Amino acid sequence: MNQVVTQLQSKFGLGKRLSFKDIGEGFLIMEVNTDKCTASIALQGAQVMTWQPKTQAEPILWMSEAATLKQGKSIRGGMPICWPWFGAHPSDPSFAAHGIARTAQWDVKQTSVTELGEVEIVLGLAVEQHQQYKHKMTAEVVIRMGKQLSLTLTTHNQSDEELHIGQAIHTYFHVGDVREVSVHGLEESEYIDKLSLSPAYQKQQGSISIASEVDRIYLDDGQDVLLEDKSLQRTLRIQKQGSHSTIVWNPWIDKTKALGDMGEDDAYLHMLCIESANAADDVVILPAGEKHALFVQYSFV
Question: Which stretches of 211-298 are DSSP H helices?
């Protein structure tokens, strides 16, 4: 055990329920193991990589077998945090896609066990004079995990100017067979089809099914979304606050092969991204000194 891990374990470890580990070249993770769930979280990106309640026979989150777990490299799978912009940077395409948060090293602020027996982890990131984001800003993530999982991403604009924030909890869900999945709750919602050569608003008719590549930004009212997985015979409820856009994404076979870190050629069959976001028309305008919180919670129906 190296010195950094020893210090973190001494200050923030919770015995067997929460421990720290260096999995190689300084890449630090937290491992959770309670009577309610197992999980792992990377300090890089404050990224939940795995979460599985003890009541579930299959993982909830999808992680690529070819994911790169190295400092400075984005992790394919789990719950990446896109912040403080979503997708390409609005004015400089040379900047990192989906922002700076997911490859930054976050600081552990606090760990505890709640009255419900959930492990709670608080992580923080301060941004000032970053080469790709020169504003005084902080982000804090509060993760609670047990039979259900919740994450709150709070942005604090500490500068003296108004800032625009795009963000997403870019969650990859593990599914038995994406062709046997139905997504409910976005019926009648308008969406932008990012695969269209001339993107325009369209309206969802009925529940969402996946039979080809999908990349859509739904503009919603913050309602619950249900992921019904007929193959695994389970339905996951996605609840959120502070978000009025939801991204649904599956790369399908050609893009899976092109991406390089998706793993096996049929990996797309076993994952679906449903992202709670502030994107497109839903970008947050954050006045000087103000805060915005994006909250998501995953539980089973």
Answer: 252-259
pLDDT tens column, 47-95: 999 999 999 999 999 999 999 999 999 999 999 999 999 988 877 888 8
3-state SS class at 12:
helix
What CATH number labels 3-300? 2.70.98.10
The letter for the amino acid at 183 is: V
Per the DSSP assignment, residues forming a β-bridge with 81 are 169
DSSP state of 104: S
Cβ–Cβ contacts within 10 Å for residue 16, how many?
A: 10
CA atoms within 13 A on the CB side of 186: 30
Distance (Å, whole) CA 25 – CA 70: 7
Q: At 180, phi and psi to the nearest 5?
A: -110, 25
Residue ranges covered by each domain of the chain: 3-300
Rg of the chain taking only CA atoms, in angstroms: 19
Question: Cβ(173)–Cβ(296) under 8 Å?
Answer: no
Q: Which residues pair with 163 in a beta bridge?
A: 286
* The pLDDT of residue 300: 96
Ramachandran angles phi, psi of 46, nearest 5°? 50, 40
Going from the C-alpha of 132 to that of each of 100, 128, 162, the distances in angstroms are 8, 10, 18
Q: Quick check: 220 and 200 in contact, CB under 8 A? A: no
- For the record, the structure tokens of 290 come out as 């103000």
Name the pTM for this structure: 0.96
Structural contact between residues 192 and 214, judged by C-beta atoms closer than 8 angstroms: no
d(CA 59, CA 64): 12
Measured in degrees and rounded to the nearest 5, phi and psi for residue 61 equal -100, 145
